């Protein structure tokens, strides 16, 4: 649909765009990224025919751009216009109707049914029909942006060029506009758009071109562009790549400059022991990965609660009941990892272990009423039936990679399994050694301060500390539970 070869150009003396080559297929949503002044608008102006290149070629639908008359080009390529003050007096419909000029022929340029339909459709698509008769001066910045999009769409182009189309738009209109453009590309429209927002461009574009000082730094899929080093090279800014929670497109988080942070040591002093719950409220939020009833998954959490419930606790509605309980007791659900267990809080055990430059503090409550050997064949069930459980908290005084979080969970699980084996805990259904219980829960939470720990496998300093602390805490809690039960 569009082919750009060795394109160079600028304004008068100096070159702004230097030797840029790429092509865009029909139906693509193609994004142009780059820092301020990198030549994005200049490139777009050359593609729209507004600025003449110094050298190189542009082919639109396989024909050189200079072989088109301005009107012919306008029937193929539309540009989202920028607002000028003279447009304030026009109504919305008049503004959108200006998009039809390239389709009007003959000396009298009469307004046809086709023109009327195109204008109406463009206003409907952009949600601007409602204020068709209002003057542009009476609209908000976001509403005006949609009117200009309607004007470009009324032109019925095959290629739409946009320069930061989400500028001035609030979150919901950004999404609406990009959803609309995406839908239009599936109907065959080719969209080439400049973006400043890396994450939006990654989310919506099929391909991206990253510009740096007038040249192409990288061109490719969002996954090819959204690489921390590329973004750092071009924008001279530190970012960290993360997965989008729902869509397989990378996202970048800005890493703000931070003052040097003092180390924090999570230990027994922070353990609050109440009759029906244990809590830890560290002085700083901890980066956490857990399977808690509350606050599961990744998050920065500042409160950790392990709550005792009766053996006959009704599990039908446990998520709602648990949320109500934690709230009633003053825990902010957005900040808390909450777990539940039938184990009495007096049976909890904890252990601090230090290895080289890292330390861990582990708290465990181990009840084995629902002990299971996961390696044996059995029927499955989805509902949680009774709350007999091993809950393990692993607090790490150190800065962990995501790899270390996952390895930390693995190492802690291995240590738990060994503790059960050494204690001779059996699965009552199979009579074999249990590997856990049916409702075990685990947390690994790190201060993200202090020495960096890339790994937490079984022979790394962090892995050794986790393995030992979990083994000791689980073993001790099992002994306490068994002792108390024996006395009943
Ligand atoms: N009309 C002009 N005459 C002379 N120089 C210009 C003109 N327009 C832009 N420039 C210069 O060309 C360079 C690139 O500008 P351009 O607008 O293409 O960058 P951009 O990547 O779109 O930047 P931004 O993200 O800030 O919009 C800048 O140094 C700018 O000052």
Automatic annotation (TrEMBL):
Pfam families cross-referenced by the UniProt entry: ABC_tran, CbiZ
An annotated Gene Ontology molecular function: ATP hydrolysis activity
InterPro entries: AAA+_ATPase, ABC_transporter-like_ATP-bd, ABC_transporter-like_CS, AdoCbi_amidolase, P-loop_NTPase
Location of the ABC transporter domain: 2-238
Database matches in SUPFAM superfamilies: P-loop containing nucleoside triphosphate hydrolases
Keywords of the record: ATP-binding, Nucleotide-binding, Translocase, Transport
Transmembrane residue ranges: none
The keyword Cytoplasm appears for this protein: no
PANTHER family: HEMIN IMPORT ATP-BINDING PROTEIN HMUV
Protein name: ABC transporter ATP-binding protein
Organism: Domibacillus iocasae
């Amino acid at each position: 649909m569009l082919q750009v070869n060795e394109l160079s150009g600028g304004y008068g003396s100096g070159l702004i765009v230097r030797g840029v080559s790429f092509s865009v297929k029909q139906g693509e949503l193609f994004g142009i990224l780059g820092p301020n002044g990198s030549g994005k608008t200049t490139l777009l102006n050359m593609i729209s025919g507004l600025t003449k290149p110094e050298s190189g070629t542009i082919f639109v639908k396989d024909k050189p751009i200079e072989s088109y008359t301005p009107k012919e080009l306008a029937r193929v390529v539309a540009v989202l216009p920028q607002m000028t003050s003279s447009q304030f007096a026009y109504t919305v419909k008049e503004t959108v109707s200006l998009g039809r000029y390239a389709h009007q022929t003959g000396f009298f340029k009469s307004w046809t049914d086709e023109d009327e339909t195109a204008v109406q459709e463009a206003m409907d698509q952009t949600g601007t029909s409602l204020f068709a008769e209002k003057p542009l001066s009476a609209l908000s910045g976001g509403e005006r942006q949609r009117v200009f999009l309607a004007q470009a769409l009324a032109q019925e182009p095959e290629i739409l060029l946009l320069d930061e189309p989400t500028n001035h738009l609030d979150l919901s209109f950004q999404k609406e506009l990009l959803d609309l453009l995406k839908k239009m590309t599936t109907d065959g429209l080719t969209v080439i758009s400049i973006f400043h927002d890396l994450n939006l461009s990654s989310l919506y574009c099929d391909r991206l071109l990253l510009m740096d000082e007038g040249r192409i730094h990288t061109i490719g899929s969002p996954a090819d562009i959204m690489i921390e080093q590329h973004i750092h090279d071009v924008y001279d800014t530190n970012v960290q790549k993360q997965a989008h929670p729902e869509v397989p497109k990378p996202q970048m988080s800005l890493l703000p400059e931070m003052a040097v942070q003092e180390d924090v040591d999570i230990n027994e002093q922070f353990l609050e022991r109440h009759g029906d719950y244990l809590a830890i409220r560290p002085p700083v939020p901890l980066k956490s990965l857990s399977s808690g009833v509350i606050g599961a998954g990744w998050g920065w959490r500042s409160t950790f609660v392990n709550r005792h419930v009766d053996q006959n606790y009704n599990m039908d509605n446990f998520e709602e009941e648990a949320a109500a309980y934690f709230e009633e007791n003053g825990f902010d659900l957005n900040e808390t990892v909450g777990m539940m267990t039938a184990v009495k809080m007096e049976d909890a055990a904890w252990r601090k272990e230090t290895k080289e430059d890292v330390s861990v503090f582990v708290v465990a409550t181990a009840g084995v009423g629902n002990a299971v050997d996961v390696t044996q064949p059995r029927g499955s069930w989805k509902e949680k039936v009774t709350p007999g459980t091993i809950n393990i908290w692993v607090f790490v005084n150190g800065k962990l990679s995501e790899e270390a979080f996952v390895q930390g969970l693995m190492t802690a699980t291995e240590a738990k399994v060994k503790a059960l084996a050494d204690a001779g805990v059996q699965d009552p259904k199979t009579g074999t050694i249990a590997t856990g219980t049916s409702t075990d829960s685990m947390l690994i939470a790190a201060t993200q301060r202090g020495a960096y720990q890339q790994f937490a496998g079984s022979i790394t300093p962090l892995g050794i500390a986790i393995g030992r602390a979990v083994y000791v805490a689980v073993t001790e809690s099992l002994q306490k539970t068994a002792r108390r039960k024996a006395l009943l």
